[in-house]
Amino acid sequence: MREYTIRQNDAGQRLDRWLGKTLPLLPAPLAQKYIRLKRIKHNGKGAKRDTRLAVGDVLQLYINDEFFDAPTPENAFLSVFQPQLDIIYEDENLLLVNKRPGLVVHPDEQEKVNTLITHIQAYLYQKKEWNPYKEHAFAPALCNRIDRNTGGIVIAAKNAEALRVINDKIKAREIDKYYLAVLHGVMQPCAGKLEHFLRKDEEKKQVQVFRQPVPDGKTAVTYYKTLAVENGLSLVECHLHTGRTHQIRAQFAAAGHPLLGDGKYGSGKDNRRFGRRFQALYSYKLAFTLPTDAGMLNYMRGKVFSVSDVDFTTEYFPRLK
Fold it and tell me: Cα–Cα–Cα angle for 151, 293, 117, nearest 5°?
């Protein structure tokens, strides 16, 4: 329990507004619930959310200690009252989530709270599967990343051993990643392999594509096959052999067929013609091949997970079955 005495600067405020300023980690819906349950007492009695505070009023807050902490990236999950997750698979070690386009996976300069990892941590905390306030507690972590405006399957590890195994298997290319992408034009041939060397420009936050090795360049290999062609666009399935930053976007742009909606590597004029503001790219399938020993995750061998619906396939290829 924490007790506060209202001073002149806080007088005249509504109780719920005062709570929002004093305890920024406490979600507003949870604050309303605590007021209803009388876990917040005003001069020793229950109060309503619109109670006006006066100088000398005493507030007693029967609220978990963690909500009194200062906001940091590590405790941002506390402010998520109802985690929004599209869960594809879950067990005691792993969580596979279908990330929607527009959601960033980790906090960045633009977004600190509404991130995929924050929603995952809030979900596991509220399920009582994770308690960060225990000594040496492991924090649920993402094993793969997807760009803000790309959708698709992201793997989260619930414990340190699962994180180690998945990271090792991704590095060893024992988890196959498949994407769907919409391209301008038609690839020739309709199926094949793109192989380049990519060098990241940190200032521009994009990659340069080279056909020959270059200093600081990393090999990028993508296998592709065309699934449908309609109205000057192609729907392509991409199988990543490597997982470089912006790999698919940069390689297809270098091949003369940028992704629909890609403002960084494509043509604004062409994208506006179709009314799309971000890249048509989706990580729609993961295959856990795991040909070598996967330790505690051997049970995942041979499992394949896919997203049932990718909106741009029906939007631009309505005749595709």
Answer: 30
